[in-house]
Amino acid sequence: MKRNVLIIGAGGVAQVVAHKCAQNNDVLGDLHIASRTVSKCDAIIQSVHDKAAMKQDGVFEAHAVDAMDSDAVEALLKKTGAQIVINVGSPFVNMTVLEACIRTGAAYIDTAIHEDPAKICETPPWYANYEWKRREDCAKAGVTAILGAGFDPGMVNAFARFAVDEFMDEVKSIDIVDINAGSHGKYFSTNFDPEINFREFTGTVYSWQEGAWTTNKMFEVGREWDLPVVGKQKAYMSGHDEVHSLAANYPQADIRFWMGFGDHYINVFTVLQNLGLLSEQPVVTAEGLEVVPLKVVKAVLPDPSTLAPNYTGKTCIGDLVKGTKDGQDVEVFVYNIADHKDAYNEVGSQGISYTAGVPPVAMAMLIADGTYDTATMVNVEELDPKPLFSLLDNIGLPTRVKTDNGDFAWDQAKA
Amino acid sequence: MKRNVLIIGAGGVAQVVAHKCAQNNDVLGDLHIASRTVSKCDAIIQSVHDKAAMKQDGVFEAHAVDAMDSDAVEALLKKTGAQIVINVGSPFVNMTVLEACIRTGAAYIDTAIHEDPAKICETPPWYANYEWKRREDCAKAGVTAILGAGFDPGMVNAFARFAVDEFMDEVKSIDIVDINAGSHGKYFSTNFDPEINFREFTGTVYSWQEGAWTTNKMFEVGREWDLPVVGKQKAYMSGHDEVHSLAANYPQADIRFWMGFGDHYINVFTVLQNLGLLSEQPVVTAEGLEVVPLKVVKAVLPDPSTLAPNYTGKTCIGDLVKGTKDGQDVEVFVYNIADHKDAYNEVGSQGISYTAGVPPVAMAMLIADGTYDTATMVNVEELDPKPLFSLLDNIGLPTRVKTDNGDFAWDQAKA
C-alpha cells in the first residue's frame, strides 16, 4: 500500500492528472504538484478547486522544482512524503526523476519515453537507451516503475495484451491506430507541446516487422482505416514509444503504429520540415543570434492549452490485433472513444490531454491498492489489463472491443 | 560631367553592378565598393579581376562603411572623390546615403524604395513617406538623384514612358508583369534577400485604379498572362515601388503590378505567413529568447547568392500599356528577356540580380556623360528613355516591343 502523490509537470496533461487525482484522493491521499514555474501549479490547483474536484477534504500543494535535478526531486519526495510519482513533465526529465524514486523507494509512473534534447530518434529499441538500463536497479531497490502509462503508449499496450490473452493462441500483428477526429478551429496547431510533437515525426519511422526493425520515412506509408464512431480516416505509419516495448514482449508479431493526419497538417509539416524550421539544431541569424528553429516555431504556434474551450469532436485510439485461435484466423479491434467537449467540461482540458492523463492516475490508484505495486520496472503490457479496464470503465475511459460478432464492452466481447 | 563611382552594398546585385562598372570604367573612372563587411567587397573585386572585367587599367577599392551613418558615407565620398553613388545596399539605408550625397553634391542612384525595418507597407504613395521629402533639398543643392533605377522599379518605368510617348495620345492602363520562368533546383528559395522579398508580400497590395488607391490582399487577384518567350504564366497583383511614382506621373491611368508565382511558392509563403513566421515583430521563445521569426526563416533558407551556378531559364519583365491613338484603342507590350545562365557566365550572378544591377550602371554612365545629370530628384519615367534603351542594347538588356503588328527591337517598333 502506497499513498500520497507527487505530480511532476504543469502542462495540459498535468491538468488532467491533477483533476483525476483530486477526484480520487480518498485512495491516493495527499496530492502535490511541482514544476519549474510554481504559478502554473497554482493555476492547476485553483482549477481543481473551481470545479470542486476534491472527493474529500485533503492536501493539494504546489511546489517549484527543477526536475532535471535528482537531488531536488529527492528532497521534495522526502519533504512531501509522496510515495507515488506521476511524471508528466517534459520527456527530458524522466531519468532524473526516476533516479530520485530509486533513492527514496517511491513508485514511478511516466507517459512518454525519455529523450535527450539534442538527439532525435535514437537507435531502437528506444527504451533500451535509457529506462531499461535502470531495470535492475529498480528490482534491487524494490521500486515500482510503470513506463509509458498514458494512452499511447499505455492503454494501447494493455489493449494488445488483452487481445492476445483473450482471443488468440498466437499473435501475428498488432497495429496501433491513433485518430483525432476533433477540430480546434485554428489554422494550425499541435495538440501538445509542438517541440515534442514535431520531434516524433522528424526522425526515422521504426516498425517491427518479420522479426526485425524496419525503417521508413514519415508519411511514406499511409492507409485508410474504417473505425468505430470516427469512420474512414487516413493514418500514416509513425515512430512511437509502444512499438519499442511491444516488439520485445511480442517479437513474433509485426508491430506498427499509425497516426491520423489530415492533408493540411501534412502540408504544413512538410513545408516546415523541408525548410529546416523543425530542426533542433541551432542556426545563426544574419544578426549573429543563435537560435533553434523548432523553438521559434513553437513560439508562434497556439499554446495547446488554449485549444480546449473550442475543441469539438472525438478521438478513437485502438489496436487492431490479428492472430490465430484453434487454427483459425482471428482479428479484434480493442479501442476507446473520447470526446473533446466532455473532457473540457469535466477537467478543463481537450481530449488528447484527457486520454493521456487519466490512465496514469488509474495506474497510481492500482499501485496505491497494491494491484500494480510490482516492485520492479515494467511496461504496461507486462501487467494484467483487467483491473485497469475495470477501473477506467468507472473513471472515464471505457474500453470496447470490436470483433466479427459485434461491438462490445471489453468484458462482454465475443470473438 | 561626373566621374568615379561608389557602390554601396555587397550582395548579389552589387556583384552585377561591380562587374558592369568595371566593364565601363573608361566612362566611369575610379571604382569603389563599400559595405559593413569589407571581406564581401574584397570577394566581389576579386571576381571582377578573375573575369578580367576591367575595360582599362584603373582603381577598384573596397571599404568598410556603416551606411546607416551619413557622416561615415560623407567621409568616404570625400576620401574617394566619388561623384556618383550607386546604392544597392539594404533598403533601410537609402535616406542616410542620400543625405551624404546632398551634403557632398554627389549624384545618387538607388534601385528600391526606402523602408523602415520596423514597418511593413506604409501609406501610399510610398515615395512620399521618405524620398520625395528631400526633393526640394536636392533641387536646391543641384544634386542629381535617380530613384528606383533597377529593373522593376526602373526599366519598367522607362517602358511606360516610352509606350505612352511613342504610341498613344492618351494612356488608360499600365500593367507591369514580372515573370521569372527560371529554375534554381532547390525545394524553396527566394531570389534575393528573403527578408526583403517576403516583406514585399506580407502587407496590403496597393494599386492605382480609377484615380484612387485600391487595396487588396496578396494572392487575392491573379490572372494568366501569355508572354513572349516564357509563354503562359500565372501572375498575381502585388504591391511594388513603381506603382507609387507612376500613379503620380500618370494619374489618369490604372497602374498595376503583377508578379509571377508558382503554386509551390504560394503554398510555402501561405504556410509561413499564416503561422506568423514572416512577422518582423519579435516573439519570445519558451526559454526567454527574443527573436524575429522572419530573421530565422532567412537563416534557414538558401543564401540567394548560392543559386546562380545552377540557375537555368529566362525572365520576362515588361509593361502592357493600353491607351488610344487618333481615337483608336492601342495596346503595346514593352519588355526584356534575360537568361540566368548567360548572366552567370558574364558576371557570376543569376538573372534576377542581373536585371536589377545593369540598369543603375547605365544610369551612372548617362550621368557621367551629362545626359541624365538632372541636378534634381527624379523617378525614371521623368527621364527620356531613348538614351537608356540605346545604351542597354549594347551593355546587356535589350528592350523589345510587341504590338499588333509584330515583335520588334524598341527602335523598329510599329504600332
UniProtKB/TrEMBL annotation, chains A, B:
Domain called Saccharopine dehydrogenase-like C-terminal: residue spans: 150-394
Matching SUPFAM superfamilies: NAD(P)-binding Rossmann-fold domains
Domain Saccharopine dehydrogenase NADP binding: 5-146
Family annotation (InterPro entries): NAD(P)-bd_dom_sf, Sacchrp_dh-like_C, Sacchrp_dh_NADP-bd
Cross-referenced Gene3D superfamilies: Dihydrodipicolinate Reductase, domain 2, NAD(P)-binding Rossmann-like Domain
Pfam name, any one: Sacchrp_dh_C
EC number: 1.5.1.43
UniProt keyword list: Oxidoreductase
One MF annotation (Gene Ontology) recorded for this entry: carboxynorspermidine dehydrogenase activity
Keyword Oxidoreductase attributed: yes
Acyltransferase listed as a keyword: no
Name of the featured protein: Carboxynorspermidine synthase
